[in-house]
Design goal:
359 residues, alpha/beta, five-stranded antiparallel beta sheet, 35% helix, elongated
């Protein structure tokens, strides 16, 4: 949902009717995660996707039917069997997905601008929808309150409780018993921080890729000329000594177990205090650029200032997966690949993150 939310809000402001399809459940191997969304307007324009192409055309056609008759539907798509024809609809990967498809009328989708406003401001927000063709409803849960209703009483209380459990890190939940889900809850957490220590040629592509991966890139830069370069590139900058900036972010609660810190300098006056601050914050990913010689020398300096062996082993350095590239974009890709590998590890606190991009 996060990926297409700004465009959905624009469609809503234009009073353009559309149908929204949301992947609310998945069993087995499926192309995209639960919470993925696709929108289709009356002219057939499409935003997003539900699968890798296996069922998207059928979902789009169903969405236009939903627009015409105004009634939401719950569709389930299973695997394509051995006896299926070449144009049968199903998932070739063998899984099963459940898709909720509902009309979004310009005069009734009050919840859409509320979601868009919260996400645009970087605030966590959760959205619950009741999956009933004859009695649907929407509930938006924010840290300080809630808006809307799924019907009142217990269903609202249960949905709000599930939403609040999910808000800190994001994620989805299905409420209901048996094969027919009753309520779908999707929480969009605040984007985790990607703190890039100093602006270098690698920083620009890394910030761009990090944004696509759902992070909030922030450059920490103490050199005014390079801080200006980062701002000119459209990246958020925290000026001053990086270790001071990291300490500030930590105090604000923005630097936490979901965060990533990438140190792109081997200036001893900057890298050691920045790495020490990030290690003490317990960030989810910590990497530092440098050759084997640099890493060996830096490790000694880190030991001298009190970082223990567990802290040293948590630093990915030399940084990135060994892809072999040397150009800035190639190095940034190697760093991002390693960041993803660490993030999706079951041991990582952010592995249950919300789906979608933070861009």
């Amino acid at each position: 949902m996060r990926d297409i939310l700004p465009q959905l809000a624009e469609w809503w402001r234009e009073s353009r009717p559309f149908a929204l399809a949301t992947l609310v459940d998945a069993v087995g191997s499926t192309p995209l995660p639960v919470g993925t969304a696709m929108a289709v307007d009356g002219e057939g324009a499409v935003l997003g996707a539900i699968s890798g192409g296996c069922v998207d055309a059928d979902v789009a056609a169903t969405a236009q039917e939903v627009l015409r008759d105004g009634r939401p539907v719950l569709r389930r798509y299973g695997p394509v069997g051995p006896g299926s024809g070449p144009f049968d609809v199903g998932l070739t990967c063998g899984g099963t997905v459940t898709v909720w498809i509902e009309p979004v009328p310009p005069d009734g989708a009050w919840w859409l601008p509320v979601l868009a406003s919260a996400v645009g401001a970087g605030r966590p927000v959760a959205h619950a929808v009741r999956l009933r063709s004859d009695d649907s409803g929407h509930l938006v849960v924010l840290p300080g309150g809630r808006e809307g209703s799924l019907g009142g009483g217990e269903v609202d209380r249960d949905a709000e409780a599930a939403a609040r459990r999910l808000l800190p890190e994001g994620g989805t939940a299905v409420l209901g018993s048996g094969p027919h889900p009753d309520v779908f809850v999707a929480a969009l957490a605040s984007p985790p921080l990607l703190a890039i220590v100093t602006w270098t040629p690698v920083a620009r592509p890394l910030a761009r890729i990090g944004c696509e991966l759902g992070y909030r890139p922030v450059v920490l830069e103490h050199r005014p000329a390079f801080a200006a370069q980062a701002r000119d590139a459209g990246v958020e900058v925290l000026p001053g000594l990086p270790q001071t900036g990291l300490r500030t972010l930590r105090g604000e609660g923005a630097l936490d177990g979901r965060s990533a810190v990438v140190v792109l300098t081997h200036d001893a006056r900057v890298d050691v205090p920045a790495l020490l601050e990030a290690a003490e914050a317990g960030v989810g990913y910590l990497g530092a650029i440098g050759s084997a010689t640099t890493v060996r020398d830096r490790s000694g300096r880190l030991r001298d200032v009190g970082l223990d062996e567990a802290g040293l082993s948590a630093i990915h350095s030399p940084i990135g997966l060994p892809l072999g590239g040397r150009a800035p974009a190639e190095v940034a890709t190697a760093i991002a690949a390693q960041l993803v590998a660490v993030r999706v590890s079951p041991r990582h606190p952010g592995s249950r993150r919300a789906v979608g991009s933070g861009c």
